[in-house]
Design a protein that fits this description.
The protein is of the alpha+beta class. It has 10 helices and 19 strands. The chain has helices spanning about 5-10, 10-25, 80-100, 130-145, 215-230, 245-260, 260-265, 325-335, 365-370, 420-425; strands at about 30-45, 50-70, 70-75, 150-170, 175-190, 200-205, 240-245, 285-290, 310-315, 320, 340, 350, 355-360, 375-380, 390-405, 405-420, 425-430, 440, 445-450. The strands form 4 sheets. The chain has a 6-stranded antiparallel sheet with strand order 3-2-1-4-5-6. A 5-stranded mixed β-barrel has the order 7-14-15-16-19. A 5-stranded mixed sheet has the order 10-9-8-13-18, with helices on one face. Residues about 1-10 have low confidence and may be disordered.
Length: about 450
């Protein structure tokens, strides 16, 4: 899709953004950029055979950032009436005149701006679902979960749909817009009785309704997972291999992304700040960020500054190849933006990932677990005990104990600890990568972690 085609699909929001930039320049701003975000969502919740709630929201936010030399200021508003916009524009220009200087602020260089971009197929053009249709999906999910033997109660099921649009205009010559949809189904149930109850859930989301897993499958998996967790045991503290289920392995990739964010590197607050060009992961591992993935949950045709974005290998055969940069952090580091700027309406951009994933390995999950005499298979993480400066890692966990290469029984009230630098270097991926979230990883095995139990 070219930028002119995008303009035709969202002419109103682009006109608003262009008007804001033009009026800011006339009010004295040396440069300006405006972003307009609009969204519509519809969601239902369902529990024990009854509709509990229906929520619908519609909104539009505008953000305007202006520059006076090396000074910048940002304002945002949900009111786009003339009575609100006039004073808002005057106010932000006045703010920029007295703001402290920032030697790294400014618009992206015009040579880096996107001029055309591919059709990512992230907007489902079919008719939006009604509240009744969403309620039927939630009811189907809960019914399937309650049908699983051992499930005794429901925490509820839900279904939702949404559409969001983005329009961005800068005085450096960029104008572009895009829209995307999302749909989801979730279910959470309990198994067991009295004080011996366990809860679990399942969830699925997709850009197009046709790609969404069936509600019955979501419910059945939620029920089966809850039943599997019944009668958990505790284990003694020891050092063992830990297997991360795909439901939680993406968190490890997320910790890595935070450590290579341009802001953390520029501040010197990352445990990977001195590792560029070095082996950070085992050689079996590659990590990719791909904003142009067809129907990807976080796909976008250009970044939050209008810069060209592209599929970017972050880790190749274990080697760290790049930081995640927007324009400001790139200037601070003496580099060029990598097209990872993301933004809302209330402040300047900052680096962020899109469709981030660890590539699949060659071993099956069974092969990954085979040979483990004693170990832990993690299905749920609790808390956020991760130190981004040192890499120290300590989080609550539950899952299943591994004995002689097989899952033996459920376990809970466990803490797993290590250091992310060591964990990355001692990590092996399985071959079961699926794209179910914005950040994904296959099942992974990490050697020599400390498991703290009784």
């Amino acid at each position: 899709m070219t930028s002119s085609a995008a303009a035709q699909t969202s002419e109103t929001t682009l006109d608003i953004a262009a008007m804001l930039v033009d009026r800011a320049r006339k009010a004295g701003a040396e440069a300006a950029e405006a972003v307009v975000l609009e969204g519509t969502s519809l969601g239902v919740s369902w529990r024990l055979g009854h509709l509990e709630d229906v929520e619908r929201s519609e909104g539009r936010d505008v953000g305007l950032r202006v520059f006076m030399g090396k000074r910048q200021a940002t304002v945002s508003s949900t009111d786009i009436s003339e009575a609100a916009l006039g004073p808002m524009i005057e106010r932000v220009v006045a703010m920029a005149r007295v703001a402290p200087e920032d030697p790294y602020c400014g618009l992206a260089d015009a040579s880096l701006l996107a001029r055309d971009w591919p059709d990512l197929d992230i907007e489902d053009k079919s008719a939006p679902p009604s509240a009744e249709q969403l309620a039927a999906l939630a009811a189907e999910a809960e019914e399937a979960a309650l049908a699983v033997k051992g499930v005794t109660n429901s925490s509820g099921a839900g279904a939702g749909w949404g559409r969001s649009g983005v329009a961005l205009v800068t005085s450096a010559g960029f104008a572009g817009s895009y829209a995307g949809t999302s749909c989801s189904v979730s279910c959470s149930v309990l198994a067991g009785e009295g004080t011996a109850m366990e809860r679990d859930y399942d969830h699925a989301s997709a850009r197009h309704r046709a790609d969404l897993d069936s509600a019955a499958k979501i419910g059945r998996l939620a029920g089966e997972k809850a039943v599997r967790r019944l009668n958990p045991r505790k284990v003694k503290s020891q050092s063992v291999p830990v297997i991360y289920d795909p439901r939680v392995s993406g968190g490890l990739v997320g910790h890595f992304a935070g450590a290579i964010s341009g802001g953390a590197i520029a501040r010197g607050t990352s445990f990977l700040k001195n590792e560029m060009g070095k082996q950070v992961f085992s050689r079996e591992i590659s990590v990719v960020d791909d904003p142009h993935m067809k129907r990807g949950l976080r796909s976008k045709p250009f970044d939050g500054e209008g810069v060209r974005n592209r599929r970017t290998p972050l880790i190749e055969a274990g080697m760290l190849t790049t930081w995640l940069l927007d324009t400001a952090t790139a200037r601070q580091l003496g580099l060029t933006t990598t097209g990872h700027a993301a933004r809302g309406t209330g402040g300047p951009p900052s680096p962020s990932t899109t469709n981030l994933y660890m590539e699949a390995g060659c071993l099956s999950v069974a092969e990954l677990i085979a040979g483990i005499r004693q170990g832990l298979y993690v299905t749920e993480m609790i808390g956020m005990g991760v130190n981004g400066v040192t890499g120290d890692y300590s989080r609550g966990a539950s899952g299943f104990w591994i004995e002689n290469g097989e899952l033996a029984y459920p376990v809970s009230e466990i803490t797993i600890a290590g250091n992310l630098k060591d964990m990355f270097l001692n990590m092996t991926p399985a071959d079961d990568l699926e794209f179910k979230h914005g950040t994904n990883a296959p099942t992974v095995r990490v050697e020599g972690m400390t498991v703290a139990g009784t």
